[in-house]
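In practice, a research group might receive sequence data for several interacting partners and want a quick structural hypothesis before committing to experiments. The following worked case mirrors that situation: the sequences arrive first, and a predicted assembly follows.
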Amino acid sequence: MTFAHRHIISTKQFSRADIELILDTAERFKEVNQRDIKKVPTLRGKTIINLFYENSTRTRTSFELAGKRMSADTINISASGSSVTKGETLEDTAKNIEAMDADAIVMRHSCSGAPDYLAKRLTRCSVLNAGDGFHEHPSQALLDLMTMRQHKGRIEGLTVAIIGDIARSRVARSNLHALKTMGATVRLAGPATMLPPGLEELGAEVYTDINAAIKDADVVMMLRIQLEREGGNTLMPTLREYAQFFALNTENVKLAKPDAIVMHPGPLNRGVEISSYVADGGQNVILEQVENGVAVRMALLYLLLGGSDEE
Amino acid sequence: MAAIETVILDNSAITRAITRIAHEILEKNNGCANLVLIGIRSGGDHLARMLREKISAIEGVDIPQGAVDVTMYRDDIGSGEVRPVGKTDIPFAIDNCHVVLVDEVLYTGRTIRAAMDALVDMGRPSSIQLAVLIDRGHRELPIRADFVGRNVPSARDEQIEVLFDDDGNPLEVRLIKPS
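A structural hypothesis for the assembly, expressed as tokens:
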């Protein structure tokens, strides 16, 4: 077995074997999370820094729990409570963290490419991308794939419809690469203002009609409308109009296969991209995604920090 | 030059050893009340299954059997290549049970230490006992087996391999000497 990665920046870096190894390892760690004592000594003595320049509840908590359940020391730094507000550059902050002998930096940043920038400048520390701008969110895509595999028994051959603000969705991009690598069909759908050019070249089928995208899908993944981006520029006239044409509701969800699962990366805008009836309905696996998130992040940390650099 | 391989236990010798160990386990525990078998992956889980079948044939009782993978508990994580984590599958509570850990070959004792740490994370057994097919010596920790199929004095540079078929039935045990 080999896992030849020191950093995790994009799902594009993974082969099919890599993704299978990550998902299999995550299943093993999920068993730990179901025990009464949810702790193993696997990463004793390792230090993991969560460096978050952007708000997050789920991802930060999930990475923190992942590290703690493997006995690593995890520290959280948020931009608002750090020297970032005093004008320190990203590179200086990271090099100072590395000088304290941290083993991994889990990083979220509003600038696409920030984790890659750091990965190229740090010599000892691993960098994990926990979401960078509109670029990628690899651990989210991997937990999505884990959830799909648990429900469908496979990923190859599935039809996955991803619907919403594709242009600004790092979740969509990470899922697209990972799903294509695993042999799934990926449909991306949303209003034309939210569909960037060139998606077909990445292997996606593109739809502006949500009903056509949902038709016979195995998985329907709704994306969050990003109300906080670019001073509230939501790329649509009104939320109400968006909800009318692009929300998943009790009617259009019936177009998918009868056993289709409904996913959402959270946080939910209930009544905007997804109706509460569907979000809480029998097909939703949204909280399973969250549960799998901890296991996937444990697997990623183990695979990065559980070996030695010496070849 | 090729290494020299000697078969030290064939299939019927393995079966006899397992049958004897099954009787010894029942004798020591006065039957099979609260008795559970947990095999250490990989290999030990196959032997645990054989022991369960023997015990079932002798006592007419099916006792719980599980498997533990010790990768998360190893003391050499971080050295060498990262190792794949196998499945731990213990679908029953081990509290107040007499757990018999089952492994193929007892060598340094480090795997057993890791397995015991894994077990106490999952509950508080009344006792943990150890059954192994082969004890080859060279302990690095104060650990001994309660039930041994065969003691095989060996040199550190030798290897002992237990071979199984695709269904997990043991074929033979080989001693491999470097030449």
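Before designing any experiment, note the following. The longest strand of chain A covers residues 126-132. Residues 286-305 of chain A form the longest helix (20 residues).
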